[in-house]
Amino acid sequence: MTAVDERAVAEFFEGFEPPDGLKVELLRGEIVMMASPDLVHNLIVSDVQDQVPRRHWARMQTQDVDIVDEASEPVPDLVVVAPEILPASGRLLPAGLVTMVVEVVSKTSVERDYSVKRSIYAAGGIPVYLIVDPIMAQCVLLTRPEGEGERADYKGQVKRKFGETLMIDALGVELDTSAFGTLPDVKPHRYPLP
């Protein structure tokens, strides 16, 4: 896609009003719409949010994030930022302010969460990307972003099964995953790739 095409899509996206019940994101110039999430998804997001101490961190659900030099405005399931650096207002939160993003995998978001968003969040320099996967009953913690554009990636990766704790050093939080639910009758996948 050319820069002109990306600008036109970004301008259209800024004024787009999605139908009720749909989540909409701009990912590398592509507008992606998703149905409202499953109850399991929402409970996991709430559980992770509850474990990140409010006195130290601003925890926001469905906050648009601005990735510099990308035609992307992802909407993570949870965004964690130091409260003292939050802007006073605005729809887009600059990626440079974000400490951690969380995505909870759904039946239709596996490849997007494990691959496309992994690259986008790394390109944005977001220090921590947590993928919570109720299909495979696992969490994948990605750290140390490197690179630019589609070649950006995280160099650090830790995987834990639900029921195990996961230390998130950047937040000083030991995440308890024992209450995370799973999605029944969903075909297993192969992510994360080694």
UniProtKB/TrEMBL annotation:
It holds the Pfam family Uma2. InterPro entries: Nuclease_put_TT1808, Restrct_endonuc-II-like, Uma2. Residues 16-175 form the Putative restriction endonuclease domain. It comes from the Bacteria. PANTHER family: SLL1072 PROTEIN, SLR1083 PROTEIN. This is Putative restriction endonuclease domain-containing protein.
